Here is the input.
Amino acid sequence: MKLRNILLATCILSASVGAVAMPQIAHAASVADLNQDSEKAIRMLISTNPAAAAIAKNARAILVFPNIVKAGLIFGGAYGEGELKVGQAVDGYYNSFTGSWGLQAGAQSYGYVVFLMTEKAVSYIHESHGWEIGVGPTVVLVNEGVAKNLSSTTMQDDAYAFIFDQQGLMAGVSIEGTKISRIKTP
Here is the structure.
């Protein structure tokens, strides 16, 4: 009986969290909004993070997701739309989806940028039918510890990811288990 009550409470709370997060997820951004939000996110990240600024100078392309919404209670998910920029031009639009399970509860939003450093990484994202982070090119999640040890001579990985602008209440943010897929113009 106790387990049944716990499962019922979990389902009700999951539905409540999903109901709050889903309107934001379901609303696809217009191209103009996505372009503006992406540009703003890149400028903010580069102006506030010296490691990101240094990496950006050498990046072949930048994959930017300005707003990811994450919600979960035991089972969770995160979704957002972004764009791939090569130089100043938009090379395509993508979505980012993460599914997770485990000890988790809450909802939050954040953004992330992946600096693609090699032609191999750029080609992989163009040629794959959905890039799963952790499969394919090597992606390093840059935190304060990693950033202190980065220099133009130590940057040898295919891609570097930065998570920024976290808001809300949820323990932990990760890009592991994330699938990035090309989408038609939103």
